[in-house]
Amino acid sequence: MAIRKLLRMGDDRLYNQSTIIKDIHSNKTQALIDDLIDTMRHYGGAGIAAPQIGELQRVFIIESNNLSRYPNAEPIPLTVLINPIYEILSEQQEEDWEGCLSVPGYQGLVSRYTHLRYQGYGRDGQMIEREVSGFHAKAIQHENDHLNGILFPMRVEDIRNFGCDDSIWKRLYPKQSYPEDRKQKVRKIWDFD
Ligand code: NI
What we know:
This protein is an alpha+beta fold. It has one domain (about 10-190): Peptide deformylase (Peptide Deformylase), CATH 3.90.45.10. It has four helices and eight strands; from the N terminus they run αβββββββαβαα. Strands 1-2-3-6-7 form a five-stranded antiparallel sheet, sandwiched between helices. β6 and β7 (about 125-135) form a beta hairpin. The longest helix has 17 residues, at about 25-45. It is globular and about 50 Å long. It starts with about 25 loop residues before the first helix and ends with a helix. The protein binds nickel (II) ion (NI).
């Protein structure tokens, strides 16, 4: 178990296709999952995919309780998804502001499908299948994109809707000050070695 270094946008490894995991029960895969959980929780993300810590393997995790970034999001229990796939259940899309641990300090407006069915394997090798909507559905699309080398800024249609987290915050909530927890989060990830 370890908190791993996050790869940030610009690193070539984030733009690669990840490979299928063949042995879910191996120590290597199980250790990778532990590291993903530790790293996501340490940096306060709602999800993280293996390529973000430099492992080009098809696994991501999602979890959300009460994040200031997504105050209206319904909670998602810790979910580990290995070799995931999803199917869109409605052509309907919705725009929302997204962030990413690999794009620290920024947010952008991205259009995502609102309703989908996904499946993949849990860390115990059992198949997980869920039909989801809203924030949960968006999180799946965001994380699955990482496995295909896509970062959310690549999906922002108008670059004016991509910007520094605090500037966009002021645009969206002119009467509220920029929250302290968001400042701390950005500082934490921007710790150069
Ligand atoms: Ni991300």
